[in-house]
Structures are given as C-alpha cells and as structure tokens.
C-alpha cells in the first residue's frame, strides 16, 4: 500500500511539474521565506543542509544564497521535479555546491549527520509524517537545526481548500496530530518554534483554482487514481458553493511551521 502510494505520488508530481512550478511556486513563496528566515535566525552549524521534497527547487537557490559556506542537497521523489530543480541550480551557477537527487526522502540516514533540514510542503505527503519528522531530526548533527513547514489537516476555517478537503477527506492519519512534534523531540531535540503562518493566495478565478489544484497540484494524484469522470462529479459538488466560475478567489490558508534544534551533546 505504501509502495503504491509512493509510486502514485512519483508519477503525479512528475506529470504536473511544469504546471506546478508556474502556478504554485509563486503562491508558496511566502511560506518558503518564512521557513528560511527561521532557519537563518537559528544559525545551524557548518555542514550539509538537506532539503527534502524540494520540488522544482525554488528553495534550493534561496538556501544556497543564505548559507554560502554550506553544501545543499535537495531530494524529491519525482523525476519531473528534479529535472526542473537541476535546471534552476545549473542556471544560477550553483552546481558546485548544490546537488539534487531523485528519491524517497522519508529517511535521511544516508546524509547524516546534517547541519540542517529545511522542507516546505512535503511532510503532509508522507504516509507517516510524525515518524518522518523524527527521522529527519535524528539525522541532525549535535546543534543541528530543522525548519519544516507543512499543510496540517485543516488549513483554513472556510474557503476553497477546506471545501476540497471536506469533499475528499479520508480517515485522518493516526499520528497526524498528537505525535508532531513529540516523536521528533524524543530524538533529543528542543522545540524552538511551532506556529501557523498564513498568507493570502489570489486566484484569477474559481475555475483557475480548480484547474490548478486538480491538474497541476495536490489533487492531481486523485485524478490519476480515480479518473476524469470521478473528478467531474467532484467538480460539480465543489462548484455548488461557487456559482460564478469566473469570479476571482482569495483565501488565506495557514501552514504549520516547526523549528527544532538537536541537543548539542547527546543526553
Ligand atoms: C507540494 S510539493 C512542494 C514542493 C516545494 N517544496 C515547494 O514548496 O514548492 C510536494 C513535493 O513533495 C514531493 N514528495 C512527496 N513525497 C515524497 C517523498 N516520499 N520523498 C521525496 N519527495 C516527496 C513531491 O514529488 C513534490 O515535489
């Protein structure tokens, strides 16, 4: 089951990579900035900074610029995303210090000990997010810093994203709430920050939101899994709340941003 989900995500994110980069990279930029600011403010030790789930690589260039003495390794499951990230890295002349790899980033043991982990909007994709966060924390060097932003189960009280969640939600994952970040803290780390940054996302129309989410974003994997007919029915239900498809849409979802520091000496 986990292998099937991984294969589905790999295929979906590869297929949508170009459209995702055009549509979502600018929309998600403010959360990337938030996460990077937190990492910068907490001065990780020298070494390697891992960027799991780097997607098309927007954050790789920013991390490399903020930490000119560090090596940066981006990882993503989807070849299509890694292709874009590599283009970005090479285009900015960062190839000697920034590496991008295709692969499952749920365990970072092969990169340990890490100076830092920075990840934006990847953790919620993992089947066992609390365990993954614990693994990433356990791979930090003493004094290493983790800054991770992800979409929690509820991103807004009302709004189009919440409506999509409600129409498609399965059972919440058992470890989703209680074990984040406690499982990670048990790796020998202290919590530096746990907050919920919100930013406005503006869509030219309701239709653009639907198309972006289901053809170029997180709901595309559902389209692959269940097919266009299922998505048409979902679209019909979704649009009941939005009779004017051409109307511009604004909403302010919140992510969850967690920053941890590994204890300097093992306890
Ligand atoms: C919503 S995108 C975020 C991309 C980028 N960080 C951003 O903020 O724009 C989620 C990314 O996580 C990647 N991903 C999902 N599961 C993964 C896994 N197990 N290992 C590595 N990458 C994964 C997907 O391929 C996709 O590129």
Automatic annotation (TrEMBL):
Lineage of the species this protein comes from: Eukaryota, Viridiplantae, Chlorophyta, core chlorophytes, Trebouxiophyceae
Q: What is this protein called?
A: Methyltransferase domain-containing protein
State one Pfam family annotation: Methyltransf_25
Report the residue ranges that make up the Methyltransferase domain in this protein: 53-144
Q: Which organism is it from?
A: Chlorella vulgaris (Green alga)
Q: Which SUPFAM superfamilies match?
A: S-adenosyl-L-methionine-dependent methyltransferases (SSF53335)
């Amino acid at each position: 089951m986990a292998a099937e989900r991984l294969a589905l995500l790999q295929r979906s994110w590869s297929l949508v990579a170009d459209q995702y980069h055009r549509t979502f990279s600018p929309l998600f930029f403010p959360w990337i900035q938030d996460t990077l600011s937190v990492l910068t403010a907490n001065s990780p030790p020298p070494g390697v900074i891992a960027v799991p789930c780097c997607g098309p690589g927007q954050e790789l260039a920013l991390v490399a610029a903020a930490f000119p003495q560090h090596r940066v390794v981006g990882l993503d499951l989807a070849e299509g995303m890694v292709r874009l990230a590599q283009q970005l890295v090479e285009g900015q002349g960062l190839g000697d210090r920034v590496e991008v790899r295709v692969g499952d980033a749920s365990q970072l043991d092969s990169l340990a000990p890490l100076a830092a982990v920075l990840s934006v909007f990847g953790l919620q994709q993992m089947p066992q997010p609390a365990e993954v966060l614990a693994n990433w924390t356990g791979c930090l060097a003493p004094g290493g810093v983790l800054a991770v932003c992800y979409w929690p189960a509820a991103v807004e009280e009302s709004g189009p994203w919440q409506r999509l969640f409600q129409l498609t939600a399965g059972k919440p994952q058992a470890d989703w709430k209680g074990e984040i970040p406690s499982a990670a803290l048990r790796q020998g780390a202290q919590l530096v920050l746990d907050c919920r940054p919100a930013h406005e996302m503006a869509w030219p129309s309701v239709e653009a939101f639907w198309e972006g989410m289901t053809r170029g974003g997180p709901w595309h994997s559902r389209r692959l899994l269940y097919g266009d007919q299922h998505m048409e029915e979902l679209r019909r239900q979704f649009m009941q709340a939005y009779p004017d498809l051409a109307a511009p849409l604004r909403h302010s979802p919140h992510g969850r941003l967690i920053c941890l520091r590994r204890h300097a000496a093992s306890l």
